[in-house]
Design the sequence.
């Protein structure tokens, strides 16, 4: 299944788009569209979700992305694109990931960190 993000309808205020992208002041960035790819085999499904948001601000933002996931699901990887830059994440233990994130921030590099808040919610 594949939906073209340019032709997908944008949800109304009462509909959910799944993940939310929120800046550090609590303002939600506008959702532009999404696409979904699913591969299933042997009782397992691999799902690739692409969501598109728009930043109308000229300022650099610190954002938080929250996504629901089934309790028996797992995050196998993530990536995000800002302008022409693509950042690809690596999955590792919580302590090591937190340390790498903090070091990158101190060095002034762009960084992302995905943490499992509870069995069904992940936050980046």
Sequence:
């Amino acid at each position: 299944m594949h939906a073209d993000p340019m032709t997908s309808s944008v949800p109304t205020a009462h509909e959910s788009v799944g993940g939310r992208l929120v800046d550090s002041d609590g303002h939600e960035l506008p959702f532009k569209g999404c696409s979904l790819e699913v591969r299933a085999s042997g009782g397992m499904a691999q799902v690739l979700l692409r969501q598109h948001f728009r930043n109308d601000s000229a300022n650099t933002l610190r954002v938080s992305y929250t996504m629901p996931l089934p309790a028996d699901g797992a995050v196998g990887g993530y990536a995000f694109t800002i302008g022409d830059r693509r950042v690809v994440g690596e999955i590792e233990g919580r302590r090591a990931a937190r340390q790498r994130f903090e070091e990158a921030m101190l060095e002034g590099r762009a960084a992302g960190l995905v943490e499992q808040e509870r069995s069904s919610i992940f936050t980046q």
User: Anything to note?
Assistant: Residues 1-58 form one domain.
